[in-house]
Design goal:
Two copies of one chain form a homodimer. By secondary structure, chain A is an alpha+beta fold. Chain A has helices spanning about 85-95, 145-155, 160-170; strands at about 5-15, 20-30, 35-40, 45-50, 55-60, 65-70, 75, 95-110, 120-130, 140-145. Helices cover about 15% and strands about 50% of the residues of chain A. In chain A, the strands form two sheets. In chain A, strands 4, 5, 6, 7, 8, 9 and 10 form a seven-stranded mixed sheet that branches. In chain A, strands 1-2-3 form a three-stranded antiparallel sheet, with no helix packed on it.
């Protein structure tokens, strides 16, 4: 059977700084009509940066989940920004480091059932410290952990952030002991 | 430095079927005030089910990303529903299978910067076919792939769904050749 959902009607119900939300009526290709609530997000970048065999992570309070989260450095794309450039910008803003070597790890959709957020994942190596300069409404602390420590934190539920876990899996060939 | 953000004002800007959206004014613990847009979601379950060393996946059209997505079986929690029960319900609804053996793989937050969606991950084994019964506004096709095929699809960008990739990593000790 063909898989499509045709938009019958589309209405924005919220326009924000970070997200827009629309409510659409769709015709599913099996003939049923349904409602779809869609969160629109500009997308972003996530960087797995390796410094002397340690992975850089950032610790910050995440307001929606009311808790401190340990994550890879990441950030939103600015309007029309190239993801490769955004990855360099965000790594330096959040950790202070620039990197010589960059590899794409593809992209992920964080929650494709109701949100279009697409995150571009990168591996970065050959780090040089320049200067950390986070946004003024963010408090970010940067730490370094070994690859084994990161895997333990994922397995023990200390790291529960989906983009961080996805980047670890996609980067595994760059993280082996060879 | 302490990591907190105190709510100064909170306002719902959208109440939907799947999500609610609020816009809050917060006081960051460094003294700055800021706005936070928060998508509230009831959360859900994701099941990595193994059938004769093959992993069950479902293929479906995802309206927000306007494309067909290959994902592990998953679904939303119903109001006050126990995640363990929801996992059994969703596996059977989407694939037709019931499982004898269940293991928790912890949980993930799909996008903690703007959304509270929490997904409980499970490993399921010992499958018996009962009866597939998806929602009538969903078209879902179920497939089986070897573990190596799933890893290839993740590496080649055929699978880009974050919950699916996270469950693979958390389940790796159950998927080894031992």
């Amino acid at each position: 059977m063909e898989f499509t959902e045709k938009t019958l009607k589309s209405e924005y119900v919220f326009n924000g700084k970070v997200i827009d939300v629309k409510r659409d009526e769709v015709l599913v290709s099996n003939g049923h009509q349904s409602l779809r609530e869609v969160v629109e997000h500009t997308g972003g970048v996530v960087i797995l940066a390796l410094k002397n065999d340690k992975i850089l992570v950032v610790k910050q309070f995440r307001y929606p989940i009311k808790s401190v989260s340990i994550e890879l450095p990441a950030g939103k794309l600015e309007k029309d920004e190239n993801p490769d450039y955004a990855a360099q910008r965000e790594l330096e803003e959040e950790t202070g480091y620039a990197a010589d070597e960059w590899k794409s790890l593809g992209f992920i959709y964080t929650s494709p059932g109701f949100c279009d957020e697409k995150l571009h994942l990168y591996f970065a190596n050959g780090l040089k410290y320049k200067n950390q300069h986070p946004d003024e409404d963010e408090i970010i602390e940067c730490y370094e952990y070994s690859i084994d420590e990161i895997y333990s934190m994922i397995d023990n539920g200390i790291i529960n952030d989906s983009k961080t876990i996805c980047a670890l899996l996609r980067a595994r060939k760059y993280l082996s002991d060879d």
